Amino acid sequence: MFYSNSFRSLVKHPFFKKKRNRYITCTMILILYFAYFYYNMVELAKISMVNQNISLAVIVKGQLMTFFSACSSAFFFGVILYLFVVNTVALDKVSLFFAKSLPFEENEIQLSFLIFKFSIMIGLYEFIMLIITPMMTLVTSSKLLFILIWLILQAIFILTCICLDFLYKKMTTFTKGKGRVIVKYTVDIILLLSALLYYFLFRYKLEEKLSGFTTHISVLIRLVCLSILLLLLLSLLLIRKFIFPEQILTTSKYIKIGPTIKNLLSSNLISLLRTKNNWYVLFLMIAFVVILYVSQDFKQLGTILQMILVFSGIFCLPFYDNMSRFRQLFTSYSISLKRDIGYQLMMLIILVLPYVIVSYDNYLNLLQPIWVALTSLILGYLFPKSDGILNETTQMIILAMTIMICFILWKKPELTSFIIVAQLFLFAYVIKKERAVGEK
User: So where does this one cross the membrane (predicted)?
Assistant: First the structure.
Protein backbone atom coordinates (compact mmCIF):
# COMPACT_ATOMS: atom_id res chain seq x y z
CA MET A 1 0.00 0.00 0.00
CA PHE A 2 2.82 2.42 0.90
CA TYR A 3 4.59 1.73 -2.39
CA SER A 4 1.45 1.97 -4.52
CA ASN A 5 0.67 5.34 -2.97
CA SER A 6 4.24 6.52 -3.42
CA PHE A 7 4.56 5.64 -7.09
CA ARG A 8 0.95 6.42 -8.01
CA SER A 9 1.70 9.83 -9.48
CA LEU A 10 4.71 8.53 -11.45
CA VAL A 11 2.80 5.61 -12.95
CA LYS A 12 -0.21 7.77 -13.77
CA HIS A 13 1.84 10.70 -15.03
CA PRO A 14 0.73 11.54 -18.60
CA PHE A 15 4.31 11.40 -19.89
CA PHE A 16 4.92 7.87 -18.60
CA LYS A 17 1.60 6.40 -19.76
CA LYS A 18 3.05 5.79 -23.23
CA LYS A 19 5.48 2.88 -23.56
CA ARG A 20 7.55 4.87 -26.03
CA ASN A 21 8.23 7.59 -23.45
CA ARG A 22 9.13 5.02 -20.80
CA TYR A 23 11.58 3.31 -23.15
CA ILE A 24 13.09 6.64 -24.21
CA THR A 25 13.57 7.70 -20.57
CA CYS A 26 15.22 4.41 -19.57
CA THR A 27 17.43 4.46 -22.66
CA MET A 28 18.59 8.02 -21.98
CA ILE A 29 19.42 7.17 -18.37
CA LEU A 30 21.43 4.12 -19.45
CA ILE A 31 23.27 6.08 -22.14
CA LEU A 32 24.16 8.84 -19.67
CA TYR A 33 25.41 6.35 -17.11
CA PHE A 34 27.52 4.36 -19.57
CA ALA A 35 28.94 7.62 -20.93
CA TYR A 36 29.85 8.59 -17.37
CA PHE A 37 31.35 5.13 -16.76
CA TYR A 38 33.35 5.31 -20.00
CA TYR A 39 34.63 8.78 -19.08
CA ASN A 40 35.84 7.44 -15.71
CA MET A 41 37.56 4.49 -17.35
CA VAL A 42 39.38 6.82 -19.77
CA GLU A 43 40.54 9.01 -16.88
CA LEU A 44 41.59 5.90 -14.97
CA ALA A 45 43.72 4.79 -17.91
CA LYS A 46 45.42 8.20 -17.92
CA ILE A 47 46.09 7.95 -14.19
CA SER A 48 47.49 4.43 -14.63
CA MET A 49 49.97 5.73 -17.20
CA VAL A 50 51.09 8.44 -14.79
CA ASN A 51 51.36 5.91 -11.94
CA GLN A 52 54.17 4.13 -13.77
CA ASN A 53 56.50 6.96 -12.75
CA ILE A 54 55.30 7.08 -9.12
CA SER A 55 56.71 5.04 -6.25
CA LEU A 56 54.73 2.08 -4.89
CA ALA A 57 54.41 3.68 -1.42
CA VAL A 58 52.69 6.77 -2.84
CA ILE A 59 50.31 4.61 -4.92
CA VAL A 60 49.35 2.49 -1.86
CA LYS A 61 48.75 5.61 0.21
CA GLY A 62 46.55 7.04 -2.54
CA GLN A 63 44.57 3.79 -2.67
CA LEU A 64 44.02 3.85 1.10
CA MET A 65 42.95 7.51 1.05
CA THR A 66 40.46 6.78 -1.74
CA PHE A 67 39.07 3.83 0.23
CA PHE A 68 38.67 5.79 3.48
CA SER A 69 37.25 8.73 1.54
CA ALA A 70 34.55 6.42 0.15
CA CYS A 71 33.79 5.23 3.70
CA SER A 72 33.47 8.85 4.85
CA SER A 73 31.11 9.52 1.96
CA ALA A 74 28.96 6.52 2.93
CA PHE A 75 28.67 7.86 6.49
CA PHE A 76 27.94 11.40 5.26
CA PHE A 77 25.24 10.28 2.83
CA GLY A 78 23.77 8.08 5.56
CA VAL A 79 23.19 11.16 7.72
CA ILE A 80 21.99 13.35 4.84
CA LEU A 81 19.61 10.82 3.30
CA TYR A 82 18.20 9.77 6.67
CA LEU A 83 17.39 13.38 7.56
CA PHE A 84 16.03 14.00 4.07
CA VAL A 85 13.68 10.98 4.05
CA VAL A 86 12.50 11.46 7.63
CA ASN A 87 11.64 15.11 6.98
CA THR A 88 10.05 14.67 3.54
CA VAL A 89 8.38 11.24 3.42
CA ALA A 90 5.00 11.23 5.15
CA LEU A 91 1.73 9.48 4.44
CA ASP A 92 -1.19 11.28 2.88
CA LYS A 93 -4.64 11.09 4.48
CA VAL A 94 -5.79 8.15 2.34
CA SER A 95 -2.80 5.94 3.22
CA LEU A 96 -3.00 6.96 6.85
CA PHE A 97 -6.68 5.98 6.98
CA PHE A 98 -6.05 2.54 5.46
CA ALA A 99 -2.97 1.94 7.62
CA LYS A 100 -5.02 2.56 10.75
CA SER A 101 -8.19 0.75 9.65
CA LEU A 102 -6.82 -2.48 8.14
CA PRO A 103 -6.85 -5.55 10.46
CA PHE A 104 -3.14 -5.65 11.20
CA GLU A 105 -1.34 -5.52 14.51
CA GLU A 106 0.27 -2.24 15.46
CA ASN A 107 3.76 -3.76 15.44
CA GLU A 108 3.27 -5.03 11.88
CA ILE A 109 2.24 -1.58 10.66
CA GLN A 110 5.16 0.01 12.50
CA LEU A 111 7.62 -2.46 10.98
CA SER A 112 6.14 -2.03 7.49
CA PHE A 113 6.50 1.75 7.60
CA LEU A 114 10.05 1.43 8.96
CA ILE A 115 11.01 -0.93 6.11
CA PHE A 116 9.32 1.43 3.66
CA LYS A 117 11.40 4.41 4.82
CA PHE A 118 14.64 2.44 4.87
CA SER A 119 13.98 1.08 1.38
CA ILE A 120 13.67 4.66 0.12
CA MET A 121 16.96 5.61 1.81
CA ILE A 122 18.74 2.58 0.35
CA GLY A 123 17.23 3.21 -3.09
CA LEU A 124 18.53 6.79 -3.08
CA TYR A 125 21.93 5.62 -1.90
CA GLU A 126 22.11 3.01 -4.67
CA PHE A 127 21.59 5.84 -7.13
CA ILE A 128 24.60 7.60 -5.58
CA MET A 129 26.56 4.34 -5.63
CA LEU A 130 26.15 4.20 -9.40
CA ILE A 131 28.22 7.37 -9.49
CA ILE A 132 30.75 6.35 -6.82
CA THR A 133 31.35 2.75 -7.99
CA PRO A 134 33.68 3.57 -10.93
CA MET A 135 35.98 5.41 -8.49
CA MET A 136 36.61 2.16 -6.60
CA THR A 137 38.70 0.90 -9.51
CA LEU A 138 41.34 3.32 -8.22
CA VAL A 139 41.57 1.23 -5.03
CA THR A 140 41.87 -2.27 -6.44
CA SER A 141 41.54 -4.28 -9.62
CA SER A 142 40.62 -7.47 -7.73
CA LYS A 143 36.98 -8.48 -8.21
CA LEU A 144 36.78 -9.99 -4.71
CA LEU A 145 38.10 -6.84 -3.02
CA PHE A 146 35.81 -4.74 -5.22
CA ILE A 147 32.80 -6.71 -3.91
CA LEU A 148 34.06 -6.40 -0.31
CA ILE A 149 34.41 -2.62 -0.70
CA TRP A 150 30.87 -2.47 -2.08
CA LEU A 151 29.62 -4.44 0.96
CA ILE A 152 31.53 -2.15 3.34
CA LEU A 153 30.00 1.00 1.85
CA GLN A 154 26.50 -0.52 1.95
CA ALA A 155 26.97 -1.65 5.56
CA ILE A 156 28.31 1.74 6.72
CA PHE A 157 25.34 3.50 5.13
CA ILE A 158 22.73 1.14 6.63
CA LEU A 159 24.48 1.14 10.01
CA THR A 160 24.46 4.95 10.07
CA CYS A 161 20.73 5.05 9.27
CA ILE A 162 19.93 2.42 11.92
CA CYS A 163 21.91 4.26 14.62
CA LEU A 164 20.21 7.56 13.77
CA ASP A 165 16.78 5.91 13.79
CA PHE A 166 17.52 4.35 17.18
CA LEU A 167 18.64 7.75 18.48
CA TYR A 168 15.47 9.49 17.26
CA LYS A 169 13.15 6.78 18.61
CA LYS A 170 14.89 6.84 21.99
CA MET A 171 14.70 10.62 22.03
CA THR A 172 10.90 10.63 21.49
CA THR A 173 10.39 8.55 24.65
CA PHE A 174 11.65 11.47 26.77
CA THR A 175 9.73 14.30 25.08
CA LYS A 176 6.08 15.07 24.40
CA GLY A 177 3.99 17.54 22.39
CA LYS A 178 5.69 20.66 21.03
CA GLY A 179 8.81 19.89 23.03
CA ARG A 180 9.30 16.77 20.91
CA VAL A 181 9.13 18.83 17.70
CA ILE A 182 11.60 21.41 19.03
CA VAL A 183 14.04 18.74 20.18
CA LYS A 184 13.73 16.89 16.86
CA TYR A 185 14.52 19.95 14.73
CA THR A 186 17.37 20.89 17.08
CA VAL A 187 18.89 17.42 16.72
CA ASP A 188 18.35 17.62 12.93
CA ILE A 189 20.33 20.83 12.75
CA ILE A 190 23.11 19.56 15.04
CA LEU A 191 23.47 16.34 13.05
CA LEU A 192 23.46 18.10 9.70
CA LEU A 193 25.99 20.72 10.75
CA SER A 194 28.21 18.04 12.30
CA ALA A 195 28.06 15.97 9.10
CA LEU A 196 28.91 19.02 6.97
CA LEU A 197 31.79 20.03 9.24
CA TYR A 198 33.19 16.51 9.20
CA TYR A 199 32.84 15.99 5.46
CA PHE A 200 34.20 19.36 4.33
CA LEU A 201 36.75 20.12 7.07
CA PHE A 202 37.79 17.36 9.44
CA ARG A 203 37.75 14.15 7.40
CA TYR A 204 40.88 15.01 5.41
CA LYS A 205 43.14 14.91 8.47
CA LEU A 206 41.54 11.66 9.61
CA GLU A 207 41.93 10.04 6.18
CA GLU A 208 45.54 11.22 6.02
CA LYS A 209 46.30 9.46 9.33
CA LEU A 210 44.41 6.29 8.40
CA SER A 211 46.24 6.08 5.08
CA GLY A 212 49.47 5.66 7.04
CA PHE A 213 48.59 2.08 8.00
CA THR A 214 51.31 -0.38 7.07
CA THR A 215 48.85 -3.28 6.80
CA HIS A 216 48.43 -4.57 3.25
CA ILE A 217 45.35 -3.06 1.62
CA SER A 218 43.74 -6.44 0.89
CA VAL A 219 44.06 -7.51 4.55
CA LEU A 220 42.82 -4.12 5.74
CA ILE A 221 39.72 -4.27 3.51
CA ARG A 222 38.89 -7.77 4.80
CA LEU A 223 39.25 -6.66 8.45
CA VAL A 224 37.12 -3.56 7.92
CA CYS A 225 34.47 -5.59 6.10
CA LEU A 226 34.26 -8.16 8.90
CA SER A 227 34.08 -5.47 11.62
CA ILE A 228 31.40 -3.41 9.87
CA LEU A 229 29.24 -6.46 9.09
CA LEU A 230 29.44 -7.59 12.74
CA LEU A 231 28.38 -4.12 13.91
CA LEU A 232 25.52 -4.15 11.41
CA LEU A 233 24.35 -7.56 12.65
CA LEU A 234 24.51 -6.33 16.25
CA SER A 235 22.47 -3.24 15.40
CA LEU A 236 19.81 -5.35 13.66
CA LEU A 237 19.54 -7.54 16.77
CA LEU A 238 19.13 -4.43 18.94
CA ILE A 239 16.34 -3.14 16.69
CA ARG A 240 14.56 -6.47 16.98
CA LYS A 241 14.84 -6.40 20.78
CA PHE A 242 14.04 -2.71 21.30
CA ILE A 243 11.17 -1.77 18.99
CA PHE A 244 10.10 1.84 19.48
CA PRO A 245 6.78 3.11 18.13
CA GLU A 246 6.98 4.57 14.62
CA GLN A 247 5.17 7.88 14.20
CA ILE A 248 2.81 7.21 11.31
CA LEU A 249 0.97 10.47 10.90
CA THR A 250 0.42 13.40 8.62
CA THR A 251 1.84 16.75 9.61
CA SER A 252 1.34 20.20 8.21
CA LYS A 253 4.28 21.34 6.09
CA TYR A 254 2.94 24.86 5.71
CA ILE A 255 2.89 28.09 7.67
CA LYS A 256 -0.41 29.93 7.65
CA ILE A 257 0.44 32.84 5.35
CA GLY A 258 -2.37 33.64 2.94
CA PRO A 259 -1.80 34.97 -0.61
CA THR A 260 -3.73 37.90 -2.04
CA ILE A 261 -5.14 38.33 -5.52
CA LYS A 262 -4.42 42.08 -5.49
CA ASN A 263 -0.65 41.69 -5.76
CA LEU A 264 0.28 38.52 -7.62
CA LEU A 265 4.05 39.05 -7.37
CA SER A 266 3.98 39.39 -3.59
CA SER A 267 1.69 36.35 -3.41
CA ASN A 268 4.21 34.32 -5.40
CA LEU A 269 7.04 35.37 -3.09
CA ILE A 270 4.95 34.78 0.04
CA SER A 271 4.09 31.29 -1.19
CA LEU A 272 7.78 30.38 -1.01
CA LEU A 273 7.75 31.31 2.69
CA ARG A 274 4.71 29.13 3.44
CA THR A 275 6.76 25.94 3.31
CA LYS A 276 8.53 24.94 6.51
CA ASN A 277 11.16 23.06 4.52
CA ASN A 278 12.15 26.30 2.76
CA TRP A 279 12.76 27.97 6.12
CA TYR A 280 14.74 24.90 7.12
CA VAL A 281 16.89 25.09 3.96
CA LEU A 282 17.35 28.86 4.40
CA PHE A 283 18.63 28.40 7.93
CA LEU A 284 21.00 25.65 6.80
CA MET A 285 22.36 27.84 3.99
CA ILE A 286 23.05 30.64 6.47
CA ALA A 287 24.65 28.22 8.93
CA PHE A 288 26.78 26.69 6.17
CA VAL A 289 28.01 30.14 5.09
CA VAL A 290 28.89 31.03 8.69
CA ILE A 291 30.79 27.76 9.17
CA LEU A 292 32.78 28.20 5.97
CA TYR A 293 33.41 31.87 6.74
CA VAL A 294 34.82 31.02 10.17
CA SER A 295 37.08 28.34 8.70
CA GLN A 296 38.13 30.28 5.58
CA ASP A 297 39.70 33.63 4.80
CA PHE A 298 37.46 36.71 4.53
CA LYS A 299 38.55 37.22 0.92
CA GLN A 300 37.03 33.86 0.01
CA LEU A 301 33.61 34.78 1.43
CA GLY A 302 32.45 36.01 -2.00
CA THR A 303 33.33 32.68 -3.59
CA ILE A 304 31.56 30.82 -0.78
CA LEU A 305 28.43 32.95 -1.19
CA GLN A 306 28.44 32.31 -4.94
CA MET A 307 28.57 28.57 -4.32
CA ILE A 308 25.63 28.75 -1.89
CA LEU A 309 23.46 31.21 -3.83
CA VAL A 310 23.60 29.05 -6.97
CA PHE A 311 21.10 26.82 -5.17
CA SER A 312 18.68 29.61 -4.19
CA GLY A 313 16.34 28.41 -6.93
CA ILE A 314 15.45 25.23 -5.02
CA PHE A 315 13.02 27.36 -3.01
CA CYS A 316 10.76 27.15 -6.10
CA LEU A 317 10.25 23.39 -5.79
CA PRO A 318 7.11 23.64 -3.59
CA PHE A 319 5.75 26.71 -5.43
CA TYR A 320 2.99 24.87 -7.33
CA ASP A 321 1.87 22.89 -4.27
CA ASN A 322 1.64 26.11 -2.28
CA MET A 323 -0.33 27.94 -4.96
CA SER A 324 -2.36 25.16 -6.65
CA ARG A 325 -5.71 25.96 -5.00
CA PHE A 326 -5.17 29.69 -5.23
CA ARG A 327 -4.32 29.41 -8.93
CA GLN A 328 -7.75 27.94 -9.64
CA LEU A 329 -9.14 31.46 -9.12
CA PHE A 330 -6.96 33.04 -11.82
CA THR A 331 -9.50 32.54 -14.61
CA SER A 332 -12.28 34.05 -12.48
CA TYR A 333 -10.15 37.12 -11.79
CA SER A 334 -9.10 37.45 -15.47
CA ILE A 335 -5.40 36.84 -14.80
CA SER A 336 -4.03 36.10 -18.26
CA LEU A 337 -1.48 33.42 -19.11
CA LYS A 338 1.14 36.05 -20.07
CA ARG A 339 0.67 37.88 -16.78
CA ASP A 340 0.91 34.62 -14.84
CA ILE A 341 4.15 33.62 -16.58
CA GLY A 342 5.56 37.14 -16.28
CA TYR A 343 5.04 37.34 -12.52
CA GLN A 344 6.60 33.93 -11.98
CA LEU A 345 9.66 34.95 -14.00
CA MET A 346 9.86 38.17 -11.96
CA MET A 347 9.84 36.00 -8.84
CA LEU A 348 12.81 34.06 -10.23
CA ILE A 349 14.68 37.29 -10.98
CA ILE A 350 14.19 38.46 -7.39
CA LEU A 351 15.49 35.10 -6.14
CA VAL A 352 18.72 35.37 -8.15
CA LEU A 353 19.32 39.07 -7.33
CA PRO A 354 21.60 38.25 -4.34
CA TYR A 355 23.76 36.20 -6.71
CA VAL A 356 23.96 39.18 -9.10
CA ILE A 357 25.25 41.36 -6.26
CA VAL A 358 27.87 38.82 -5.20
CA SER A 359 29.11 37.95 -8.72
CA TYR A 360 29.09 41.46 -10.17
CA ASP A 361 32.46 40.83 -11.84
CA ASN A 362 31.22 37.95 -14.03
CA TYR A 363 27.58 37.95 -15.07
CA LEU A 364 28.02 34.78 -17.13
CA ASN A 365 27.91 32.92 -13.81
CA LEU A 366 24.31 34.13 -13.49
CA LEU A 367 23.30 31.37 -15.90
CA GLN A 368 23.78 28.72 -13.19
CA PRO A 369 21.21 30.01 -10.62
CA ILE A 370 18.74 30.75 -13.44
CA TRP A 371 19.15 27.15 -14.65
CA VAL A 372 18.53 25.79 -11.12
CA ALA A 373 15.55 28.09 -10.48
CA LEU A 374 13.82 27.27 -13.78
CA THR A 375 14.42 23.54 -13.35
CA SER A 376 13.02 23.66 -9.79
CA LEU A 377 9.93 25.55 -10.88
CA ILE A 378 9.22 23.15 -13.77
CA LEU A 379 9.75 20.07 -11.58
CA GLY A 380 7.32 21.50 -9.03
CA TYR A 381 4.62 21.54 -11.71
CA LEU A 382 5.48 18.13 -13.19
CA PHE A 383 5.85 16.26 -9.88
CA PRO A 384 3.74 18.02 -7.21
CA LYS A 385 4.19 16.50 -3.77
CA SER A 386 0.43 16.49 -3.19
CA ASP A 387 0.08 13.81 -5.92
CA GLY A 388 2.41 11.29 -4.27
CA ILE A 389 4.63 11.05 -1.21
CA LEU A 390 7.73 10.22 -3.28
CA ASN A 391 7.30 13.09 -5.71
CA GLU A 392 9.52 15.32 -3.59
CA THR A 393 12.21 12.64 -3.72
CA THR A 394 11.77 12.42 -7.50
CA GLN A 395 12.14 16.20 -7.74
CA MET A 396 15.40 16.15 -5.79
CA ILE A 397 16.90 13.29 -7.83
CA ILE A 398 16.14 14.94 -11.18
CA LEU A 399 17.27 18.33 -9.85
CA ALA A 400 20.57 16.84 -8.64
CA MET A 401 21.18 15.33 -12.09
CA THR A 402 20.45 18.61 -13.87
CA ILE A 403 22.67 20.55 -11.45
CA MET A 404 25.53 18.15 -12.23
CA ILE A 405 25.00 18.78 -15.94
CA CYS A 406 24.86 22.52 -15.26
CA PHE A 407 28.25 22.51 -13.52
CA ILE A 408 29.76 20.37 -16.27
CA LEU A 409 28.63 22.90 -18.91
CA TRP A 410 29.45 26.08 -16.98
CA LYS A 411 32.48 26.77 -19.21
CA LYS A 412 30.23 26.73 -22.28
CA PRO A 413 27.91 29.75 -21.83
CA GLU A 414 26.51 29.50 -25.37
CA LEU A 415 25.23 25.96 -24.81
CA THR A 416 23.98 26.84 -21.32
CA SER A 417 22.11 29.87 -22.70
CA PHE A 418 20.49 27.70 -25.37
CA ILE A 419 19.32 25.21 -22.72
CA ILE A 420 17.89 28.03 -20.57
CA VAL A 421 15.93 29.35 -23.57
CA ALA A 422 14.61 25.82 -24.12
CA GLN A 423 13.67 25.70 -20.43
CA LEU A 424 11.72 28.95 -20.81
CA PHE A 425 9.69 27.51 -23.68
CA LEU A 426 9.10 24.31 -21.69
CA PHE A 427 8.06 26.37 -18.66
CA ALA A 428 5.55 28.36 -20.72
CA TYR A 429 4.17 25.13 -22.21
CA VAL A 430 3.78 23.54 -18.75
CA ILE A 431 1.95 26.62 -17.40
CA LYS A 432 -0.34 26.65 -20.43
CA LYS A 433 -1.22 22.98 -19.94
CA GLU A 434 -1.75 23.47 -16.21
CA ARG A 435 -4.07 26.41 -16.81
CA ALA A 436 -6.00 24.42 -19.44
CA VAL A 437 -6.53 21.51 -17.01
CA GLY A 438 -7.59 23.91 -14.24
CA GLU A 439 -10.21 25.55 -16.46
CA LYS A 440 -11.96 22.24 -17.24
Answer: 21-39, 67-90, 111-132, 144-169, 181-201, 213-239, 279-295, 301-320, 341-360, 366-383, 390-410, 416-431
